[in-house]
Automatic annotation (TrEMBL):
<dbReference type="Pfam" id="PF01753">
    <property type="entry name" value="zf-MYND"/>
</dbReference>
<keyword id="KW-0963">Cytoplasm</keyword>
<feature type="domain" description="MYND-type">
    <location>
        <begin position="221"/>
        <end position="260"/>
    </location>
</feature>
<keyword id="KW-0949">S-adenosyl-L-methionine</keyword>
<keyword id="KW-0489">Methyltransferase</keyword>
<dbReference type="InterPro" id="IPR044421">
    <property type="entry name" value="SMYD4_SET"/>
</dbReference>
<dbReference type="InterPro" id="IPR002893">
    <property type="entry name" value="Znf_MYND"/>
</dbReference>
<dbReference type="InterPro" id="IPR046341">
    <property type="entry name" value="SET_dom_sf"/>
</dbReference>
<dbReference type="GO" id="GO:0005634">
    <property type="term" value="C:nucleus"/>
</dbReference>
<keyword id="KW-0863">Zinc-finger</keyword>
<dbReference type="InterPro" id="IPR011990">
    <property type="entry name" value="TPR-like_helical_dom_sf"/>
</dbReference>
<dbReference type="InterPro" id="IPR001214">
    <property type="entry name" value="SET_dom"/>
</dbReference>
<keyword id="KW-0862">Zinc</keyword>
<dbReference type="GO" id="GO:0016279">
    <property type="term" value="F:protein-lysine N-methyltransferase activity"/>
</dbReference>
<dbReference type="GO" id="GO:0005737">
    <property type="term" value="C:cytoplasm"/>
</dbReference>
<protein>
    <recommendedName>
        <fullName>Protein-lysine N-methyltransferase SMYD4</fullName>
    </recommendedName>
</protein>
<dbReference type="InterPro" id="IPR052097">
    <property type="entry name" value="SET-MYND_domain_protein"/>
</dbReference>
């Protein structure tokens, strides 16, 4: 009881209910942000999509005397969206109805007529403009990704095969030679939950009742993850928001009608618990008996020993091969159906390994506590009636006992899924653009947007040097080959610890603690034998000859034979580490100056940091790359495109040394460099950089990526403005 009371107290820190005083508060706060020219936050606080809200306003009794104003705005929105036929109809309706309505006599007709004439001209202009890059083309490219259907594995290319390895378990291998950039798997999340953000709950007080902080929960649809500044909120809670009325309705029917009153508790318990509930709800509404059957099978320990139980062979009849007593024998592959096909369905999700024996007792206890608290809430809210298909008006109605699953069955299913998620959850990421408010040059960073379950992608084993990359559009993940993969070679993915981001010891520790295995990939095998040499992006260098410093606690120059006196000297590692920490603080201060628009002080600070860094850091050290990138931003803001390009090219060398010439990180940096050359009208350099950026980004993100489309527009503009080469006429 004490634990339950404590959880309830924590949950109250999240204000997820409706409050009649909130609209006025948020409108006033939005006005403040608008005056400060912080338009993104202002739009979130206003929380309105103009066209959709106009339609909702009209159906909720919007005053007739203000109808011309709202109809004009609707027409403007339709013109801006390119929906010209609807715009013409709206203009026609307004022209017809305005003079005939006596209630509109006081409205300034000249103003309406003038605006209508202006809108008609806009419609005519848009009709005469050629379409530059049709959205349909991107959709067409999206639809033909995988080519021939894979008869063994859903959502996968025919070049991918499913195998059973005696040591690794299930794995994916190439059935033919695969070229770089080739799409291998394209799978929608079986279930996904938007990460609420890293902001802590507010405490009870008059000053903090309503939260004006902006998180991903305010910027993305809670169902399809589409980016939107003006969301459609749930009618029952203030937390769930959607990109459209359609998404709101679908979410409500599938799961949100149960989740809606549990918002505070779900935010307290965390995303994994939320996914476990939503997963169970999605399957439960389709077939409650399936969960009962599968949960019954969990209680049979033989489910983990496929060779000993015929029931499991029926459930998982996909076949793999292992060597036993010198003979190759066929074994069931967990998750496959009776025909041996692995589908992206609940059966596949259920067969993802929970690693029950590897989790600590403390972790298992906390998972069980979360599920127990959630089950008690569900039970108290007449969950059984809803689970059998009752609509919201029958929540309190008693359902027939034979149709009501025991809440314990749901709890067992949710607990299994929570244990699965630590090793099988996939972070759904997006690229968020950063840069100056003027938007002259934009950078980008990858952020974790949501967490999802992808049954097919979960089959990929880990490598610290993978041969694939993943990109996301909404809730759909696409796996592409990032290098040539030979026939029979395993297709591998990175679970997070990558050789370009952390050393082998740290990678091994993270993989062992979260995924319960010791990584033996080629990158780890090589680095274990070369642990004395630090990566170039972390290395210290000799102040005299710039050679790398070597050693453990005491470092000395690796080029002792060069004959210079300084090279014979040694220095303690902790001394250099302290200098590095001080330097990083100075760089942080310079970046703050840069973000505040104090360009000249930022440049002077960065130049000082650069001189200090070059005296003891390798030329490819990450901090030197950050300094060069900051200088590039400052010079771009001042319009000195040539200097900006020089600094960014220096930063690019650091990125290439760390991540490789064909990495997605390199693609994003090339995109920035292309913008610099474009703005400086350095045409040959811009076209060359655009081509390189397109090649790299297409490899990882596909041809419909936002940055690639922007590069194509830049290229088209440059080619249009470049005079033809040849004899004059």
């Amino acid at each position: 009881p004490e634990d339950e009371i404590f959880l309830k107290r924590l949950s109250k820190g999240y204000f997820v209910g409706k409050d009649s005083g909130a609209p006025l508060f948020y409108r006033e706060e939005g006005n403040k942000k608008f005056q400060e020219k912080d338009y993104t936050v202002a739009a979130v606080l206003y929380s309105k999509t103009c066209l959709k809200d106009i339609i909702r306003a009209q159906t909720h009794g919007y005053p007739e005397r203000l109808q011309p104003k709202i109809m004009l705005r609707k027409a403007e929105c339709l013109v801006a969206l390119g929906r010209l036929q609807e715009a013409r109809q709206t203009i026609s309706d307004l022209e017809r109805n305005f003079p005939a309505s006596p209630t509109l006599a006081d409205f300034p007709s000249q103003s309406v007529q003038r605006n209508l004439h202006h809108l008609k001209m806009k419609v005519q202009e848009k009709e005469n403009l050629p379409e530059t890059f049709p959205a349909a083309l991107a959709k067409t490219l999206e639809g033909v990704d995988l080519g021939e259907e894979n008869k063994q594995l859903s959502n996968a290319s025919s070049s991918v095969g499913l195998c059973m390895d005696p040591l690794k378990g299930r794995c994916l291998v190439a059935t033919r030679e695969i070229l770089p950039g080739e799409p291998l798997v394209k799978e929608g999340a079986f279930v996904s939950v938007l990460n609420p953000g890293e902001l802590p709950p507010l405490h009870h007080s008059l000053d903090s009742k309503w939260d004006t902080r902006v998180t991903n929960g305010d910027l993305y649809c809670h169902r399809c993850l589409k980016h939107t500044l003006a969301t459609v909120p749930c009618d029952g809670c203030s937390y769930a928001k959607y990109c459209s009325q359609e998404c709101l309705q679908q979410a409500w029917e599938l799961y949100h009608r149960i989740e809606c009153p549990l918002g505070g508790l779900l935010l307290t318990l965390g995303v994994f618990c939320h996914i476990a509930l939503r997963l169970t709800l999605l399957v439960g509404f389709e077939d409650v008996s399936k969960i009962r059957k599968l949960c019954d099978e969990v209680s049979n320990k033989d489910i983990y020993l496929p060779e000993s139980n015929s029931r499991v062979k029926t459930l998982n009849s996909g076949l793999g091969e292992i060597e036993k007593n010198g003979k190759i024998v066929e074994t069931p592959i967990p998750g496959c159906d009776v025909n041996g096909k692995y589908e992206s369905n609940y059966q596949a999700v259920f067969n993802l390994l929970p690693h029950t024996e590897n989790h600590s007792p403390e972790h298992k206890f906390l998972c069980a506590l979360c599920v127990s608290a959630l089950c008690r809430q569900l039970e108290a809210a007449s969950f059984q009636a809803v689970a059998t298909g009752a609509d919201s008006s029958r929540l309190k109605a008693a359902a027939a006992p034979e149709l009501c699953p025991d809440v314990t069955v749901w709890g067992v299913a949710m607990l299994r899924h929570m244990l699965q998620l630590q090793c099988n959850a996939q972070a759904i990421t997006t690229i968020q653009h950063t840069g100056s408010k003027e938007g002259i040059v934009t950078g980008s960073r990858q952020v974790r947007l949501a967490t999802g379950i992808f049954p097919v992608i979960s089959l990929l084993n880990h490598s610290c040097s993978p041969n694939t990359s993943v990109s996301f559009i909404s809730t759909v993940a696409t796996i592409r080959a990032s290098q040539r993969i030979g026939k029979g070679q395993e297709i591998v993915h990175c679970y997070g610890p990558h050789k370009s981001r952390m050393g082998v010891a740290e990678r091994q520790q993270k993989l062992r603690s979260q995924y319960f295995f010791d990584c033996t990939c080629p990158a780890c095998h090589t680095e274990v034998h070369e642990m004395a040499a630090r990566p170039r992006w972390e290395a210290f260098c000799c102040n005299s000859c710039r050679a790398p410093m070597q050693g453990d606690d005491v470092l000395s120059c690796g080029r002792r034979s060069c004959g210079r006196r300084g090279c014979a000297e040694s220095v303690r590692r902790d001394h250099l580490a302290s200098r590095l920490q001080d330097l990083q603080q100075q760089v942080g201060m310079a970046q703050k100056l840069l973000s505040d628009g104090e360009l000249e002080p930022a440049i002077q600070q960065l130049l000082g940091c650069q001189r200090d860094a070059e005296s003891f850091l390798s030329a490819e050290h990450t901090v030197l790359g950050e300094i060069e990138d900051g200088l590039a931003q400052a010079c771009a803001a001042l319009g000195d495109w040539q200097k900006s390009a020089t600094h960014l090219q220096n930063s690019l060398r650091v990125v290439e040394a760390r991540h490789g010439p064909s990495s997605v990180e390199m693609g994003h940096e090339l995109f920035k460099l292309a913008q610099i050359f474009f703005n400086g009208f350095a045409v040959p350099e811009a076209l060359s950089t655009i081509r390189k950026a397109e090649e790299v980004l297409s490899l990882h993100c596909g041809p419909w990526d936002d940055e690639i489309q922007e590069l194509q527009k830049m290229k088209s503009c440059l080619l249009d403005l470049t005079p033809p080469v040849g004899p004059s006429v």
